[in-house]
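Q: What structure does this chain adopt?
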Amino acid sequence: MISIITAIYNQGEVNRLYYESLKAYTVNPFELIIIDNGSTDGSAEFFESVGAKVIRNGANYSYPYCQNRGIGVAQYDWLAFLNNDIVVSPQWDKRVMESMQVNGLEVATLCGIENAEDRTATRALKRRWRVLRNLLTLFGVHRVSLRLSHLLMYGNWVRHCERRYSRFRHKIKEGFVGCAIMMQRSALDKVGLWDERVQSADYDLYLRTKDRSIRHGDIRPVHICLDVFVHHYIRVTLRARPPQFADAYRLINLQDKWPKEYLVFLESIDN
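A:
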């Protein structure tokens, strides 16, 4: 059983596509916890209509605040923190859980455009998506154009994912793709909840697991499961232009929290 936690603000067409991919490709029973940041386009009502547990913030709050609200009501020991602007791959949950168990990971991310197996692969993916993203923004963000851009990017999505799974089964590399994070609840006892002061929460989570691994050795840093791919509509959905964070007054930069010797770790894993 999995608790899937997703923060949203409007983007109705994106939300419907996201839910379709979850229903089609998730193997394990799951609860979907939606943190709604004041949507006005019926997105919260849509998720309620499909049985999701919707928590209404009433205003737009930062990513870590939303994830902690989700953790507060989550029932299960596997926690998936997923962006709403992604398409998951077939059996994504079963496969990432399997890879994490094989590799002794309590926190991991799926592989994606932002950080693939090596620099060459990452650059090729980013270059291809940049072209398609520009076409998508030209024609407008709706389900037809979203599906078309996804088709042009990968061709047969299932076949693409199966090829990756066959090639990279159980292979991992240190780093992260922040749009799709899987965590065992036991990790919270070691690194704590999301730090609500840091909007760059994926970077901060990686550094906290890295720090814990150095100081105590009882957890591995965040790794990418290279055999489980996720498509992220990077930057396309930024056009939703959500209002300023209601908790912006307390947000700090990574540089305000972490010393330089830790920020260097980010350079070593960034593709």
